[in-house]
Amino acid sequence: MPQVGRVKVDPELRDLGVRLRALRLEAGLSQEDLADRSGLHRNYIGGIERGERNVGIKAILAICRALNRSPADVFA
Q1: CA atoms of 48 and 40, how far apart (whole Å)
Q2: What span, in angstroms and rounded, lies between the C-alpha atoms of 32 and 13?
Q3: What backbone phi and psi angles, to 5 degrees, belong to 7?
Q4: How far apart are CA 26 and CA 8, in angstroms?
Q5: CATH number for the domain including 42?
Q6: How high is the pLDDT of residue 14?
């Protein structure tokens, strides 16, 4: 498993993070904007995007609402 600093990065979580980052940028949002809209912490958003966090479904749903996207868009 690749490592970012001292954190091991799971390839599947990294792919999810890359997809979420692309959707966030497409929406023209910073990580801080997305954090504010989703009710999550900015550092948590960054960890998700880097593949360092095994994000829960409730957090994914909050992010989807904040991006005005469906979970299907995230996992497409």
Answers
A1: 11
A2: 20
A3: -95, 125
A4: 27
A5: 1.10.260.40
A6: 96
Q: What is the DSSP letter of 7?
A: E
Per-residue pLDDT at 8 = 77
Q: How far apart are CA 11 and CA 3, in angstroms?
A: 10
Instruction: Look at residues 49, 39, 58, 55 and name the one whose alpha carbon lies nearest to residue 14.
Output: 49
The answer to the question of residue 73 being in a domain is no
State the average pLDDT over residues 19-37.
98
Domain residue limits at 55? 3-68
pTM over 0.85: yes
Six token digits for residue 1? 């498993």
Name residue 4's beta-bridge partners: 7
Three-state SS at 54: coil
